[in-house]
């Protein structure tokens, strides 16, 4: 004999609400726009409005305030949005648990990647999803401060960066080497200077990432430790802009060698032969210490620890091989006076 506890009364609000309606409402609450909600859910705008209208009728109170500037949540809407978020999280966990019972990894992999790691992560994510075809991917790219903030706000489950954020309680697992060095145009005078040092680099314009980036933190710490003041040439949030300026001879850049492997191989950039360089650090997969990882993120963390370095080495080797013919074609021209 079974006793059913907490049966919903026929007159109770949300008695007839459906999961689809909650998904639609939760998406609207997050995006703040009917059109963007329709686009994300692959629905028409009238279909979104219909789902929301039925949910409001079931709730017995207005959830949205509609005006010339769009829609906003009412007080009741804010309350329901909080519960909807929790309900959908539990539903996703239930779905992942059922997939695990079938020996599968499922769900959405929410991973944030610092800009410098753009070169290596797409291939690693692709290889992972080939092994786990039930996993969807939500990939966010930004500087170190942005990705750390997304992790803190639980907008992502894993962060990929070169230095764990000290301001958060995290679990940080290294999975691959991360070489960093100064690079310049191939005809830069420092490349021909015997015994060039960090003090020599301080005499030329430095091309730097913006404040909040891991690369910027690393180079500032490098000069601070040496007791040398660096000379700022240009500051930008784009690795591509830094590489282009550097190749044009504007200055010297401190950069992840993973971010400029193709330019180095093609002879567009060259590494300065400074003592102790490149500086080899690590790439980390980082998660919040007090929050269990969803199945997809946990499996991706294992994949990175077990296969990350080997997969990255294979990609680097393949890129060098692909660029070799171009390098050989460029060499005769480069040798001309």
From TrEMBL:
Transmembrane segments: none annotated. Pfam families: HTH_1, LysR_substrate. SUPFAM superfamilies: Periplasmic binding protein-like II, Winged helix' DNA-binding domain. One of its GO terms (molecular function) is transcription cis-regulatory region binding. Residues 18-74 form the HTH lysR-type domain. The keyword Transcription applies. Keywords: DNA-binding, Transcription, Transcription regulation. It comes from the Bacteria. PROSITE patterns: HTH_LYSR. The keyword DNA damage does not apply. InterPro entries: LysR_HTH_N, LysR_subst-bd, WH-like_DNA-bd_sf, WH_DNA-bd_sf. Belongs to the LysR transcriptional regulatory family. This is Regulatory protein CysB. It comes from Piscinibacter sakaiensis.
